[in-house]
Amino acid sequence: MRATCAWSSSPRKPAIRLLLLSSVLIRTYSYRHGDLVTVLKRSQYQGMKTAWSEMNGNLAPHFAVDRTIRIDPMFEIQKKTASQYKTHDTFKISFSFINERFITPWLTVTDGRGHYLHNIYFTFVYDGHHLKSVRVDSDYHPDEALKVPPDHVNLVYRWETDVEVDTHTGFTTLTAMTSLGTLAALALVVKNSLVHNASQSTRRTPQKSSRRPY
Prior knowledge:
alpha+beta
């Protein structure tokens, strides 16, 4: 199983919360700021599932860059079936990042009863140059029972650093600085002690008499 997820498929709820975690810590893919992050998508309609297809680079997320793009999730179904989408049918979509390292469950674009997906929020958690996990939230159009399907869904890409890693790094740095400070203070105490002992030894040394013997 590539991902562990917790989600609700009911489109009536204002938001769907998903947590996608890789089963292993991935260090294979290293990114720089602005690098393209591979994303695939697939659809499910009338019992038919499309194969994974890579999204264009202008629609894909870019490492550590917040942005919002629009997609028409129903275009692929219309192209394959050569017919317009029927509003009474359920339609779902799924996404995959970094060659199926992170896979979302099926997201209900519409339940066939007039409720349509409006926004999908992807929160990418990264550590340095590596993507560690992906969180997904979504919400639906506030208008109940739309008669005409919307022509797009917004994909909102957000990026945040791994708090645990940052906290651990800060704690490690603080510990190192404290240790260095302690060593410096100890060295100063030892130095002062040596100087003090040398001074006391000099004071206790008897002085030779300069008087000549008779």
